[in-house]
Amino acid sequence: MTGERKPRRVLIASANPLFGKGLMKLYGERWQQQAIQSRLASSMEETLAALDSWQPDLVIVDYDDRAIHREEFLSHFITGSRPMQVILVSLQESGAVVVYDRRTLTPAQANDWLNLPWQPEPSSNPPSRRTPKMKGNTRHLLIAGLLVIVSTAVLYFLLTSIGLLPEEASQQAATIDRLFNAHFFMISLLFSMIVVFLVYSIVVFRSKPGEKTEGAYIKGNNRLEILWTIIPLGTVIAFSFFGARNLAETRKAEPQALNIRVVAFQWGWSFEYSDFGVTSRELYLPVDRQALLSLTSRDVIHSFWVPEFRVKQDALPGENLVKQLRITPTRIGNYTVMCAELCGGAHAYMNAPVKVVSKADFDQWLGTQVSAVITDPVERGKKWAENTGCISCHSLDGKKLVGPTWKGLYGETVTLADGTTVVADETYLRTAILDPNAQITQGYPANVMPSNYSSLLTDDQINDLIEYIKSIH
Length: 473
Ligand code: CUA
Description:
alpha/beta, 4 domains, 12 helices, rod-shaped
């Protein structure tokens, strides 16, 4: 009986091809038995021309299409006196069809609106149609979210366990690695968020065999777009904050830092222990003590880099361009400093050994180096006195500081706290250095001088120190 109906002409006006195609497809499915003619008009001119020449029964206008001026269209429509229906339809909200007068149509209601001879299938409760769909979406989101978490955990574990970073051998390295690990986590998370959703969609939403329908036309989602702008923005700001904080941490100065001047040249390194007048082709560092490297270059730009220490600094030519780098080695061992700035033909071979040793080994090495440079034990003793801090408590000019002056001390008769006297000979001086509380000079407090100089100074250094004290008259 439907076949007896007069064929209907439907004009779809939209510049968006998906809009028209989608509606026509919908028509095709819904009203297969109906003789429906439909036409697409993708501009205002086409629409008006079709209105005049084709005389459609129904016009469906894309509410969101700026190319179709609604006022112009409506005025043209009103001035004409043809009895036809107009529906302004928006597909903007995901999945729902919204008409101009703000009524949301379910597909079943849409048929009433289109006033076509199609009876909706008997449905027990049409308004609940959205609920199972929402539930389905939430379920997909939950599963994908769970997969993202699992994938992130697995990737993070892999990235942190395959040894991407070399051994961590300095305090600064620990700081840098904290940041590296945070990055590894972000890399794992972002990779998972992209790839898991991609693969999940490919697998779960692939079209079934024989399926011909188009996917939903989704124009945008403001909430999602605001979220995926704000979250990365916040993340980047947080990372710049962590970065700045960690950078400051790697540059934190310790008062007892060991001064080393590092000279880079084509193609090698030279290390000057300025306080001791020692120059070495190997970088010796005492463990757990900060080394303050002052870097300079004799020719072009080089870059000081020991991967195990993580921190890196360019060495620039020019005496007023000295750059500083602080390293606190935490692990005894042999490392290699390499040049990290392309500096010419032998750049790749611009290496030098780095030896992190115990404090005792370092003192011994330094002692040997100093002895080779300074042959006069008095001169050496002066170095030790300055670098061990002796002369901040013992004056060289007779002034009374925390401890007795060294001026004229050797050979003098010293009155001790208990009233007895002793001649300040070499034995006395050695005891005073190694066991300072054994013989306290009258008028000076006990337990002031540290009693650990036997571990701070080697025997040779103590001998030098005694020679130096002997020399001060
Ligand atoms: Cu020096 Cu590369």
